[in-house]
Amino acid sequence: MQHLTIFMDIESSRSYIDELYSSDVTKVLEALITLKNSVIGSNRQKSSVIQQGIVPRLLQLMSEQNWDPNIRLEATITIGSLAKGTSENVNALVEQGAAVALVEILKEVPIGTKLAEASLCALRSIFLNPPAPISALPAEMRLLSRLTQITREGSPTARACVVRILSIWCGGPIEQEALCAAGACNAIAALLAPKGTTPPPIARALPALDLLAAMCFENANVSQVALNTRYGDKTIPELLTLLVSRDKPLPVAMGAARCITFIHRAGALPADDSRVVFGALPCLARLCTKDMPEDIRATAAETLAYLAEVDTSLQRLAAISNHLMSSLADIVNCPSAAAKQGAFKCFASLGANDEDIRKRIIETHGLMVHVVNGMNNPEPSVRLAAVRCLHSLSRSVQQLRTTFQDHSVWRPLMQLLSESPGTELLTVGSSTLCNLLLEFSPAKEPMLDQGAVEMLCNLTKRPEAALRLNGIWALMNMAFQAEQKVKQRILCCLGTEQMFRLLGDSDTRVIMKTLGLLRNLLSTRQHIDAIMNEFSSQVMQAVIVVLEGSYPAEVKEQALCILGNIGDGEKAKDFIMANEDVLRKLVDYLAHPESKLQEAALFVAGNLVWKGEAGCAARQARLAELGVLRALKLLRQRPDAAHLHDKVKTALAQFNELT
């Protein structure tokens, strides 16, 4: 029946629709007014009009400069009405060029006209339907200057439209810088300023705050401009401080605190600035409390998480502000995904650096049950936030040994990571695995049984450097003081080809962790001998690649330490002694100007010449022949190596029959 009704509506409107194409101006205007009235408040009628293919004619009528101004206005208002329909309606308008046509009108009509205002209203409606047609509004200085002029001089409706459009449009550094250059900060300051003692109305302040936040987010230059922009005798941060007070509408206080947060995080305001410490932070903590609306609490928690994310002093201050811990624990129980996400993120930020705060989070509020539930939540954003929270809390040695084990948090985490998660979740989750796989963590053994080795080895093959780093880092932690069977499983699964690829990685951190893995694999004399017996050629080749390559000193130091570990093996040291090239490099590094490389080479030499072990005399003679003994004596004489003299003396003492 519905389709039949639409069909009947279309047929009954045929007469005035035909007149839209008339050459008679009066008939066109009357038809437009009739059409406009028919679509107001009816999504069904809006859809019918779009389906009839009338939009191109409407765009033509509103765009032609030689048409009667009233026709242009009515056509534009009709487009604006259609833009208030369903998402499908708006998408159809965008596809047919409505957004571009509206922007073109804004380029040429006087800014104070009804047509300009109608165009702005229509464009705002289109932009409010995601995804907004960002490309329809080019970053042209002349256009942006006209728009910012409207925010200063236009009608209240026109101002609100421009600010809302620009706040959606401003999605990156190009748009941020363009708006800043066009004078948007000055316009925003004017919108946020009180009139005498009367604060700006909420309809004016909210869009302005959204635009300011969009402009300042992660942009140091724009944030600095905002910091110094004045309206009257007050800078923008001072205007924002007035708006975070308790007597302001909640959305306004929230928006102002968010702007201060973004300006701080962009580097324009220090963490100890009063506008951060006494303005944004307590406001956000207050907006998290139980008597606030859920949407405000959700946004406040997420914003507070961002504010305190990297600064320990703000984390400690927030943790004792306005019963925040209790508020966040309550927000986790809210039904909306946004609330849970905000609370988890805030807990993650608060516990990032301080062990006492982490302990309070877990012990006071029983958060781990919520974290486990969060990792099983159907909403991806909640799962990611829960894993972020777990990652933050996993930095606690005590919690790894107790609470995490009690709740088996590794189980849902492993399940999440095995389900082809997105890159962001995989990155945070694998970072958490690095902590869960530390030697003292009870989760280590059950995670091995669940295929952790294979999962981590696969991560080392990912194109993203962060994932390769996390994969090899977690393997390094897993290998630390592990059983021999675990070490051999890692080596077999990773494979020597992949190990060599990692040693040639573009990220030095990946190379360092790969060498760290080798060091951990080659620890404990029995393990060293067993692994070298099976993988000696590959291990020695890996070390030589680093020692001969153009790597930083700290990387070469790791390679020498691996040799030192091999030299501690009962039989493994023979693989070093059989490689004259490596032994000659050892002499070179004992004389190296870098102290850390001297010390690492000394560690290798000391293990190779240690007396009392089988074959020590032959090794000492061979090393003396190649110049190691002489290099040690020279090192003892160097004043810049005074801190190594005791170790040199110990090594020389092993050569008692040769010195």
Automatic annotation (TrEMBL):
Main localisation: cytoplasm
GO biological process, one term: proteasome-mediated ubiquitin-dependent protein catabolic process
InterPro entries membership: ARM-like (IPR011989), ARM-type_fold (IPR016024), Armadillo (IPR000225), ARMC8/Vid28 (IPR038739), HEAT (IPR000357)
Keyword Transferase: no
ARM repeats: from-to residues: 53-97
KW Magnesium (keyword) present: no
Localization (cell): Cytoplasm; Nucleus
Gene Ontology CC terms, in alphabetical order: cytoplasm; GID complex; nucleus
Keywords from the named record: Cytoplasm, Nucleus, Repeat
Pfam families: Arm, HEAT
Name assigned to this protein: Armadillo repeat-containing protein 8
